[in-house]
């Protein structure tokens, strides 16, 4: 049944503070950066005197190997044990995600989630998100990231002259548990040399794979990811708020709290969406590149053969049934299909689906990794700098136990085309 909710339009720096009195402190998540076992996602470790007592580094271990199946690990992208030594070069000892996209001028940008540096520093050098840049198109031997240079928007990271070995935060958050604890990237795309990054404002963490968002929105960068500004026209609120004068927004905004972008072969850009957490279904909307900041011009897939696309987002129908975790979508020339990677939090697997059209129908999932082969792995993102047309699909994924990002490779000759 359709219903309407009173929701407050929120900004990046000040997020729905009026609801703070009614919300409890967030529950812990599962990762353990800097040895923060059991309190990651709460306010206890951040900015408190306990930071230096919780460990000197991330819990990263040597790269795990996968001896069987269609997928192999290639190398760590982040962490002290990566070829990039991001702990000393970028102040990144622990992070996740690694969402990548082509910046349109020969580089791949990679966006990461909550990031930790020196575990003994005040607040453990927590940043809500960071971005690294690379020109590496041979991920088969790992991904190399050049050093950050202050003021250089093509260097490996946005860094300041005062902290040249610490990647800067991209999109801020108040960092208040139960109000707006962090800001997490979910997708990125370049249009005419301008970078667009979809992100979610997380209100509170719950049990593993569950969280609540305030809203999703698009941040814009005109300097290759060096600085970002949220486009207020793209905010999709996801909170009920009793605030006077709040804007009325349809509840189906919740279908697009996390995203993936695809440049279609038909001139449209497709945005795939899921609700907050890893247990919802997947939906899709499309728009012309020039209209990315105008939600009124988006069209939503309805599943109706007579009228498959509609400007009414309440008519949006699922294209993949739940549970769908973080996802990425891309055209693959080798298979001649669109590919969708996503996690299944129900069984701890990463899976691949194929389709001949961006909206599907999507095939049944083919497992790339199961929890027996490699446990705690999530967020598979197709690497945008991959060679075109080869038999190997390269993608990044994160692992809870290490709280870092790795590169993996799938042999597409072992993937059934459906």
TrEMBL record:
Residues 133-174 are annotated as: Disordered. The keyword Glycoprotein does not apply. Residues 82-409 form the DUF4185 domain. Residues 155-165 have a biased composition (Polar residues). Residues 1-31 form the signal peptide. Keywords: Signal. InterPro entries: DUF4185, Sialidase_sf. The keyword Kinase does not apply. It holds the Pfam family DUF4185. This is DUF4185 domain-containing protein. It comes from Williamsia maris.
């Amino acid at each position: 049944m359709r219903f309407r909710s009173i929701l407050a339009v929120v900004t990046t720096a000040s997020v729905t503070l009026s609801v703070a009195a009614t919300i409890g402190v967030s529950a812990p998540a599962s990762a353990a950066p800097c040895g923060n076992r059991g309190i990651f996602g709460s306010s206890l470790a951040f900015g408190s005197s306990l930071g230096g007592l919780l460990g000197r580094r991330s819990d990263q271990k040597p790269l795990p190997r996968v001896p069987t199946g269609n997928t192999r690990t290639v190398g760590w992208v982040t962490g002290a044990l990566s070829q990039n030594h991001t702990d000393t070069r970028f102040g990144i000892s622990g992070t996740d995600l690694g969402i990548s996209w082509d910046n349109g001028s020969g580089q791949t940008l990679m966006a990461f989630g909550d990031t930790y540096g020196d575990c003994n520093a005040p607040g453990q050098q927590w940043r809500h998100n960071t971005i690294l840049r690379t020109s590496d198109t041979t991920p088969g031997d790992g991904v190399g990231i050049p050093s950050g240079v202050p003021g250089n928007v093509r260097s490996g990271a946005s860094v300041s002259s005062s902290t040249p070995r610490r990647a800067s935060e991209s999109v801020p958050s108040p960092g208040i548990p139960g109000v707006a604890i962090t800001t997490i990237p979910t997708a990125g795309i370049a249009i005419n040399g301008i970078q667009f990054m979809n992100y979610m404002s997380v209100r509170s963490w719950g049990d593993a794979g569950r969280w609540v968002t305030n809203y999703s929105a698009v941040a814009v960068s005109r300097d290759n990811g060096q600085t970002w500004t949220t486009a207020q026209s793209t905010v999709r609120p996801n909170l009920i708020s009793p605030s006077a004068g709040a804007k009325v927004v349809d509840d189906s905004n919740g279908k697009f709290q996390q995203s993936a972008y695809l440049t279609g072969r038909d001139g449209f850009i497709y945005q795939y969406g899921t609700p907050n957490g890893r247990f919802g279904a997947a939906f899709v909307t499309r728009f012309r590149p020039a209209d990315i900041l105008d939600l009124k011009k988006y069209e939503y897939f309805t599943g109706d053969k007579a009228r498959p696309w509609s400007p009414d987002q309440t008519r949006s129908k699922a294209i993949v049934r739940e549970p769908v975790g973080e996802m990425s979508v891309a055209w693959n020339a080798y298979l001649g299909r669109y590919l969708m990677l996503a996690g299944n939090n129900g069984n701890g697997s990463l899976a691949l689906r194929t389709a001949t059209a961006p909206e599907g129908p999507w095939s049944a999932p083919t497992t790339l990794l199961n929890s027996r082969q490699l446990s705690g792995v999530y967020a598979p993102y197709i690497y945008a700098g991959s060679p075109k047309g080869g038999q190997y699909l390269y993608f990044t994924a994160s692992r809870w136990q290490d709280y870092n990002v790795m590169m993996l490779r799938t042999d597409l000759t072992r993937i059934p085309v459906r």
